[in-house]
Design a protein that fits this description.
Helix content: 40-55%
Number of domains: 4
Largest sheet: none
Order of helices and strands: HHHHHHHHHHHHHHHHH
Shape: flat
Distance between the termini: 82 Å
Radius of gyration: 31 Å
Structural class: mainly alpha
Length: about 425
């Protein structure tokens, strides 16, 4: 299993290609080209959530042909006679200020002119009011990660890693090449800023420039990644994704989170120790489940797992602040926790499906509340604990015994102090 270091390298190496463009030779189909446009602009009023204004449902091609109160929405082969094209071309639909782009209107016209074809037979019904086409499900970001073939290139002497092959392939296709290799002074400056966030000292630059032994670069990288500053530098990226903050951030009161640092330090240690990514995720999502009850004497590993669950408490939380509606504040904490988990681990903004099926991603409103059904019982709104009520003792049995001994000694000291105070007060009064 890859650790955070390897995962970060993979993330930096992955390239992303934008949405598909309709080519002249490509047949325009409802599912691939037209439905995404209608889903973005029209489904909210014409099909989703049980709403079909004007009795017009645009989610399936045959329903466009059937039409609504104003008749058929499209006439296959005749875009100029299609009511849908008229309304959107005149800017009458969708309502409001947002309009379809000229390119989107042209795609719809081209589709109707070609016969308004579908890629496959449409479903008889749409279960639960939400229909996900094969195109929705085959979107690139929802596919399993696969190891691609490394492309062959002409200037193979420039390769340092397989990633270079992908870069050089694109450059060669455009008649370009890589820049000249950076000097050693530039290299150490770049990598030091990148890995620890600080510039190298003049002495460190001199040593690297003068180090002519094989493996000098590898030794430099290993030295930087062994520095405690490495985890502080790279851990902050995950802390940003997790919404880390030292205060609640819910209202102007902005109460301090006195124990938030424990989660911050856990993340820093995870990067510095190269903790496997699967363990890193499990501890943050279910670290408390890794600790058997009642948790009276905790091992360092168990304390680490509990600190990791601070991930689920990074959402703005105003339930301990004054002047808030408790039920609303609790609801927002649950919703923000789902947002943090989904954006950081899934790369999705599922919050749109809180009120309606997602406009862009294949996530239904039902999916959102299925996810919520996982997290809400864990946060337990019916037995809610405000931030001040979530403290857990990290004392071991020996710590408790020592605490008891010290408190007993403190009682003795206090009693002795009281006796001496009374003695000196009495003596002073007698002498006067």
């Amino acid at each position: 299993m890859l650790g955070p270091r390897e995962m970060m390298a993979v993330a930096l190496a992955i390239g992303v290609v934008g949405g598909a463009i309709v080519s002249a030779a490509e047949p325009v189909t409802f599912e691939k080209h037209v439905r995404p446009i209608l889903k973005t602009h029209c489904f909210l009023c014409h099909g989703e959530s049980g709403v079909a204004k004007g009795k017009l449902d645009l989610r399936l091609r045959r329903w466009l042909v059937r039409g609504g109160e104003s008749g058929a929405a499209i006439v296959a082969g005749q875009p100029d006679d299609s009511y849908l094209v008229d309304r959107i071309a005149l800017g009458e639909m969708p309502p409001g200020e947002k309009r379809l782009a000229a390119e989107e209107i042209e795609v719809i016209r081209k589709w109707i002119a070609a016969g308004a074809v579908t890629a496959r037979p449409e479903p008889e019904t749409i279960e639960g009011g939400n229909y996900l086409s094969e195109e929705d499900r085959s979107f690139w970001s929802f596919q399993p990660v696969r190891r691609p073939a490394v492309p062959a290139i002409r200037n193979s002497h420039q390769l340092r890693t397989p990633i270079d092959a992908y870069l050089l392939k694109r450059l060669e296709e455009r008649g370009l090449s890589m820049s000249d290799p950076a000097t050693r002074a530039v290299l150490i400056r770049r990598v030091t800023f990148d890995l620890v966030g600080l510039p190298p000292t003049p002495e460190q630059v001199r040593q690297f420039v003068e180090d002519q032994e094989p493996g000098a670069w590898q030794r430099l990288v290993q030295r930087l990644m062994a520095s405690p500053r490495y985890g502080e530098r790279w851990g902050r990226h995950w802390l940003d994704a997790a919404g880390y903050a030292d205060s609640e951030g819910y209202s102007d009161e902005d109460r301090i989170r006195p124990s938030a640092f424990r989660f911050r330090d856990y993340v820093i240690r995870s990067f510095n120790e190269d903790r496997p990514f699967d363990k890193f995720v499990v501890q943050q999502l279910a670290g408390d489940e890794l600790v058997p009850p009642p948790g009276q004497t905790l091992s360092p590993e168990q304390i680490e797992a509990l600190a990791a669950t601070g991930f689920l408490r990074m959402a703005p939380d105003g339930t301990g602040s004054g002047g808030v509606v408790a039920v609303v504040a609790r609801n927002e904490v649950v919703a923000d926790t789902i947002r943090i988990v989904s954006t950081s681990l899934l790369g999705l903004t599922v919050g749109c499906a809180r009120c309606h099926d997602h406009r862009y991603d294949p996530i239904s409103q039902a999916d959102y509340y299925r996810i919520r059904a996982i997290f809400e019982p864990a946060l337990d709104p019916k037995n809610w604990r405000t931030p001040d009520g979530r403290k857990l003792s990290l004392y071991t049995d020996s710590d408790r015994a020592e605490k008891k001994r010290i408190e007993a000694e403190a009682v003795k000291v206090d009693q002795e102090k009281k006796k001496k105070t009374e003695f000196y007060i009495t003596r002073t009064l007698e002498e006067e």
